[in-house]
Amino acid sequence: MSFRKVNIVILVLAVALFLLVLQHNFLGLSSLLRNEVSDSEIVGLQPIDFVPNSPRHAVDWRQEEIPVVIAASEDRLGGAIAAINSIQHNTRSNVIFYIVTLNNTADHLRSWLNSDPLKSIRYKIVNFDTKLLEGKVKEDPDQGESMKPLTFARFYLPILVPSAKKAIYMDDDVIVQGDILALFNTPLKPGHAAAFSEDCDSTSTKVVIRGAGNQYNYIGYLDYKKERIRKLSMKASTCSFNPGVFVANLTEWKRQNITNQLEKWMKLNVEEGLYSRTLAGSVTTPPLLIVFYQQHSTIDPMWNVRHLGSSAGKRYSPQFVKAAKLLHWNGHFKPWGRTASYMDVWEKWYIPDPTGKFSLIRRHTEISNIK
To answer: Where are the alpha helices (DSSP H) in the chain?
Structure first.
């Protein structure tokens, strides 16, 4: 009897050991899939979700992976969805989306991405910890961007996409009509960490902000009355650039410590108020203008046809809008709102929210009443 008991004990121990090994392997695989972005030194940026190898339409897997970073806030989630959908449907490239959001938006975003029209998209959802911005941003009701932490996600690209050598960042108020591969292949000059579209380019008309002057040079964004700005010896008439769409060389970004440089100017602005207040509160553009002064490459202007949101009127011809590679509704009039230009172009790529939390604001009722 004692010999049989010993055998039973040995068998039980063997089974337990096998189960422990199995559990360890399973957890290791799960960790690998869920924590691909977790080699960040900044604790605040952590992966929430990862779709590893979803089946996709006619994708050339031999091509290099194209990381596209886009921020997705709760009140603008429909914009991010439309942007992602437009990119996906206009390329055969191996694209993976790094969608940066806040914890309270992750479940909503995930359920939207699981809807049938979007199931083929490869993505990671990354949580942005607002503690990263402590001491770097001063909340100011007159500067709307300071109240929106996700607008600063573009400053942390090497942390969001740690294994990539190159990445694309774009705002959520865009629609892509060209093949994203062409933008990704933008050549960057040696020593340049990013390529932007300049505000003086031929496709974007110079915009006049009421009571503020022209929004196309450095003096529109920086306070040249401040000694620290003057000491930089940057020409006030230098053409500014739009940071809503850009291509980044992440190897060069890391080498030059771009993120640290940007954070330095954020902190100095909190202490000294270095940004111009005449353009209704851009707090993300000024530090980028300083750090990349005469040290950036340019993207094809057709890859950032902007100012579609600066007024409700149509500033471009239908032919030009159709030819644009990327349309950008920067400004107050967003295409998911009540009044915006070219809403029909944007709405083509919008996928309704299956949860019903996000809905378009339209004037159909008002128009029917006028008739």
So the answer is: 2-34, 77-89, 103-113, 157-160, 180-184, 227-230, 250-255, 258-272, 285-291, 318-323, 343-347, 364-370
Q: Is 342 left (phi over 0), alpha (psi -120 to 50) or beta?
A: left
Place of tokens 């899939």: 33
* Structure-token match 């695989």, residue found: 29
Q: What is the pTM of this model?
A: 0.82
Single out the residue of 346, 318, 298 nearest to residue 202, CA to CA. 298
| Amino acid identity for residue 174 in this structure | V
Q: How far apart are CA 72 and CA 169, in angstroms?
A: 12
Of 9, 30, 232, 266, nearest in space to 156 by CA? 266
β-pairing verdict for 123-128 and 95-101: parallel
First-to-final CA distance of the chain: 95
311-364, pLDDT tens digit by residue?
777 889 999 999 999 999 998 899 999 888 999 999 999 999 999 999 998 765
Does the CA dihedral 310-315-317-323 come out positive or negative?
negative
Strand, helix or coil for residue 248: strand
